[in-house]
Amino acid sequence: MNKENLPQHVVIVPDGNRRWAKKRGIVSWRGHIAGAKRGVEQTEAALDLGIKCLSFWGGSYDNLTKRSKVEVNVLFRIYESYLRKLIKRKELHDNKIRVSVIGRWPEIFPKGAIKAAREVMDATKDYNNHYLSFFLAYDGVQEMLAAVRDMVKEAKTNKDLKVTPESLKSHLWSGYLPLVDFLIRTGSYKDPHNSAGFMMWHTANSQLYYAKESYPDFSKKKFIEAIKEYQRRERRLGK
Q: Percentage of the chain with pLDDT > 90?
């Protein structure tokens, strides 16, 4: 595959896990387990391609507070298991991949999942060759409001604080991440949309890709096809 004109920050919004399970007559949480396996494949593919930054939206705050306890508890177990396995991956440390978990997860995660998230972030905090981020219990509107509140608070003691695009970005939970080049959302080809203001600042000029497949069917091959589609596009950025 040609590695020229690669997106440097790719986001995957893995939609359709529950619909995939329903179509097969199985419980909804089986779809989340199938989707998690795809996440592993795509992380490996992104690293092989040389993509610097890969982010996943693993669940909104509403997803993890309003759905059934059974489904949410399965998601918590998936998150914990994935993060515990991730920290042991040789590739993570050999390639100096910084792992981040972004959102309001400390408020609602069980102790085991909180510990796993903090351990993997602490173990990789000094890495900067690649970035692997998971947005969990996340809401883009809440992130923006938190950034504005922080700026208002800082302005009380820092009279030199200027409201600029750069200063606002720096106060976001995800402020250290580069802007998103390419956002892939699965399972929403007939209903292309964003949800909960996901990364609203970072995706202002992103290229968007709405896959027909639900996430468990969005294979490594499909992921690479999406990247090739990005490479064929021309980003004008208002020019």
A: 91
